[in-house]
Amino acid sequence: MRLDKYLSEAAASSRSEAARAARAGRITVDGVTVRDCSVHIDPESAEVTLDGKRVLWRRFTYVMLNKPKGYVSSTEDSGRTVMDLLPDAFKKMNMFPCGRLDVDTTGLLLITNDGERAHRLLSPARHVAKIYAFVITDPIGEDERARLEQGVDIGGHISAPSTVRLDTPTSGEITITEGKFHQIKRMFHAVGSEISELERVAFGPLTLDRSLGHGEYRYLTDEEEAALIAAAE
Ligand code: URA
């Protein structure tokens, strides 16, 4: 892999910045100053530094975003997308949101460039659990809770079994393994209520990091990354 590609994929610099940094003698590969960014290196084994700091390249990048309201979960849209909340370098790295949250839904959204694993994590056959905290407009009771858990008609489809915990008659947590369009909104509508707040708090083995404010992101830890990879096996 070319050195400038390595640096841009590691989100350390753009390719043109890399060329300038190399000319200025700010880049080393395996301890040797390299002034030409077109050299090819082995990304798996090379030790690259920029301004004395190690630049770590990974084949795939995974970040957790705490999605705010008002952003569309896609890479392209006429309105604001979740990619607008992330560094420009992420687009060049082919990062994209793994799945969709509605524009008014908040919470955990995985952003990655690992297309194959993202595809597997989203496959309905894999039953990856997604947990959402909800607030609804009209109170529901034990009957409605049980119906939601068993499966309700969401318009030509009976929702798969889910788990619902009611904290109050108008709030709680729901765990689903499907990901149909407006799934949870349609489920609550089917039992006579409407969603007024929806926040994803978990996706497979990942739990929303509450230290992230709305619109903030962080890289997954090694443990989270390993758990995610295991969930996609
Ligand atoms: N279900 C919904 O209705 N909306 C979301 O954003 C996610 C699940």
Number of domains: 3
Bound molecules: uracil
Structural class: alpha+beta
Beta-strand content bin:
25-35%
Mean pLDDT: 95
CATH architecture of the largest domain: 2-Layer Sandwich
Overall morphology: elongated
Structural description of this entry:
There is one protein chain. This protein is of the alpha+beta class and 233 residues long. It has three domains: 3-55, RNA-binding S4 domain (Structural Genomics Hypothetical 15.5 Kd Protein In mrcA-pckA Intergenic Region, Chain A); 62-124 and 206-231, Pseudouridine synthase I, catalytic domain, N-terminal subdomain (Alpha-Beta Plaits, 2-Layer Sandwich); 129-203, Alpha-Beta Plaits (2-Layer Sandwich), CATH 3.30.70. The protein is 24% helix and 25% strand. It contains seven helices and 13 strands. It has helices spanning 3-9, 15-23, 89-92, 115-122, 142-150, 183-190, 222-231; strands at residues 27-29, 32-33, 48-50, 53-55, 62-67, 96-97, 106-112, 130-136, 163-168, 171-176, 195-203, 206-207, 217-219. Strands 5, 6, 7, 8, 9, 10, 11, 12 and 13 form a nine-stranded mixed sheet that branches. A four-stranded antiparallel sheet has the order 2-1-3-4. Strand 1 (27-29) and strand 2 (32-33) form a beta hairpin. It starts with a helix and ends with a helix. The mean pLDDT is 95. The chain binds uracil (URA). Residues 101-102, 105, 182-185, 198 line the site of uracil. Uracil binds next to helix 6.
